[in-house]
């Protein structure tokens, strides 16, 4: 099984996150600051990768592979989401898959986005969420279900090799 090959020094990832969060709520910025401090002091500052995605990626029927190597393994350490200016209920979902969101057992996490312009940070600094088959982003209208949603959000995922 291949381990992600495009990771970079976490200081570069930190700079990319800072730029991506330039207009984010101060509480979100502070959460990521503490996240990187923890990664540096407790985990030895592991190499990481910021993988950005758009609402359009999530809106694609079946989702969009943001890491599409079938045998790639890695660990999801953080997710940032910013919902569009729509109050339509939506669920962002991340799947351990390299093509689509059709297998319920591949779902790793679901994050509710129910408020217009809502910002969410989901952090897993200690153990992360391991994946083995790539990553797919999508959005659905309900937590349990696969009806494609719309009016979700843009964001990014931070991954490490281990």
Task: Note down, in words, how this protein is organized.
It is a single chain. With 162 residues, this protein is α+β, with helices and mostly antiparallel strands. It has one domain. The strands form 2 sheets. Strands 1, 2, 4, 7, 8 and 10 form a 6-stranded mixed sheet that branches. It has a 4-stranded antiparallel sheet with strand order 3-9-5-6. α1 runs antiparallel to α2. The longest helix is centred in the N-terminal third of the chain and has 18 residues. The radius of gyration is 15 Å and the shape is globular. The model has no long low-confidence stretch (mean pLDDT 88).
Structural class: alpha+beta
Task: Compute the number of strand runs.
Answer: 10
**Helical residue percent?**
10-25%
The quaternary structure here is single chain
Number of H/I helices: 3
Shape: globular
Sheet of most strands: 6 strands, mixed
Radius of gyration: 15 Å
Summarize the topology.
Blueprint: E1 2-3, H1 10-20, H2 26-43, E2 48-53, H3 55-59, E3 64-67, E4 72-83, E5 90-95, E6 107-113, E7 119-123, E8 129-131, E9 135-140, E10 153-160
Parallel strand pairs: 1-4
Antiparallel strand pairs: 2-10, 3-9, 4-7, 4-8, 4-10, 5-6, 5-9
Helix pairs in contact: 1-2
List keywords for this structure.
alpha+beta; 6-stranded mixed sheet; 162 residues; single chain; 4-stranded antiparallel sheet
Give a short overview.
By secondary structure, the chain is of the alpha+beta class.
């Amino acid at each position: 099984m291949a381990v992600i090959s495009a990771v970079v020094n976490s200081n570069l990832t930190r700079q990319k996150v800072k730029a991506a969060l330039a207009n984010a709520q101060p509480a979100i910025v502070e959460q990521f600051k503490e996240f990187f401090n923890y990664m540096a002091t407790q985990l030895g500052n592991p190499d990481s990768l910021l993988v950005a995605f758009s609402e359009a990626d999530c809106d694609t029927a079946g989702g969009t592979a943001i890491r599409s190597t079938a045998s790639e393994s890695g660990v999801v350490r953080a997710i940032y989401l910013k919902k569009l200016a729509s109050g339509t209920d939506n669920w962002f979902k991340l799947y351990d898959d390299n093509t689509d969101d059709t297998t319920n057992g591949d779902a790793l996490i679901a994050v509710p986005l129910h408020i217009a312009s809502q910002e969410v940070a989901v952090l897993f600094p200690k153990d992360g969420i391991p994946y083995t088959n790539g990553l797919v982003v999508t959005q659905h209208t309900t937590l349990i279900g696969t009806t494609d949603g719309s009016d979700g959000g843009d964001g990014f995922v931070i991954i490490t090799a281990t």
